[in-house]
Amino acid sequence: AAVRAAPAPAGAPAPPRLSLSLAEAERDALAHSPVLRGADDDLAAAEARAEAAFAGLLPRVTLDGSYQYQSHVPKVALSPNAPALQFGDHHLYSAGPSASFTLWDRGALRQSWLSQKALASSQEAQRALLKRQVLLMARLDYFQVQLALEQERSLLDSLRLAAAQSRDIDSRFRAGAADRIDWLSARQQVLDRRRDLRAAQSEVSGALRELFALTGRAQDRDLSAPLDARAALPLPDGLAPPTVTLALDPLGAVESALAGAASAPLDAAHPRLLVYEGQAESERRAARGAAAGRWPAVRLTLKSDYFYPDTPRLDSAWQNSAAVGASLPLFEDGLSRKRARAATALAASADRRRDEAQDELQRDWLKARDALAALRDEEAIDRESVAGTAEIARLRYASYRAGGSTILDVETADANAVQARVLAARTRVQALIQLATLASLSAGKGTP
Questions:
Q1: What gap in Å lies between CA 206 and CA 431, rounded to an integer?
Q2: pLDDT tens per residue, range 88-104
Q3: Contacts for 360-363: CB closer than 8 Å, 24+ residues apart
Q4: pTM here?
């Protein structure tokens, strides 16, 4: 349905209109979140570390070079009468490529790579978890604005009713059909409703600031006197002109978008679980890599050098060589074994935290489902209460006009009608909060 903003007073510019759907709020929150951008950087770093660890599995090719100057060069005479031969030169240099490759290390390098890959998977799950949290926060802040607007609209309708009754009582007072106490009470009722409405606008403003801080929107707007764009026109006398009008999604549309979460199962691959699973797998791989350190490591080296001097001819020459080396730790005070034991303990700790997270997710999911079921029942009660209190308020005022009720009875009935509408809106928004919570815990509709 089309919405209309309240007109500004004659000669004054119309207040700016802000339209924000739930989908836009979610999109802007995800794009603006510094925490999520930081998680992107953490993930990029983790993936780079995994790639660096994989490079250790490949041959390493380098270009080596050296230069040396020596002041003393030994000389050798083959016989007493023969001239001395210079055994070397003052200047020595070499340059050439070399390649090295680990032939066997009982999988230590491979386990190191797989450990870093598991950490990168854990970091990816951490980013997914933060994304769900940012999305949930955006939804909850959006719902709070909707609730504040519903309260504002209820109080605006109540103010209109109080103003109409005040005008009626004023006419009756002038005609002698109402006393001064009723006249003053009606005027006070209008003032009270204006005060309540201004307080409600302040709540809307605060909720908007929370939402806009999360989405990065409209930080420079004047939100001191916001007004729901669905407010009927004209506005009652005595109200300050609105600084901005707001058009948000109707509660029914938001509820439809999240309805699938009510029947969706708990996500068995929830990112919170995957964070710990990745950490545990990383530590298990690290333990295997550390344990491999107690075994020999065999390394192949290939080298080709262009060097000078080729003694004793003092010429340049190429030298190609191949070497296989092996190393076995004879004494390290149990270093590899202790590292493996520490990593195994950390893996067990991550598994325990994963089990705890599973229990907490199950608990929160069940609590949200139970709360939603109770709120659905409350919504049915609220609908009857809203209709009943509105009818009572109407009948009380008719009874007052007929002389069967006092002005206090009328005010009480009106207050009860407003309270019923506010409670109904609060119950409905609380149901939306539980739906959003279920969506963040499940793999159903509404999950990022």
A1: 22
A2: 888 999 999 999 999 99
A3: 361/266, 361/267, 361/270, 361/272, 361/273, 361/441, 362/266
A4: 0.85
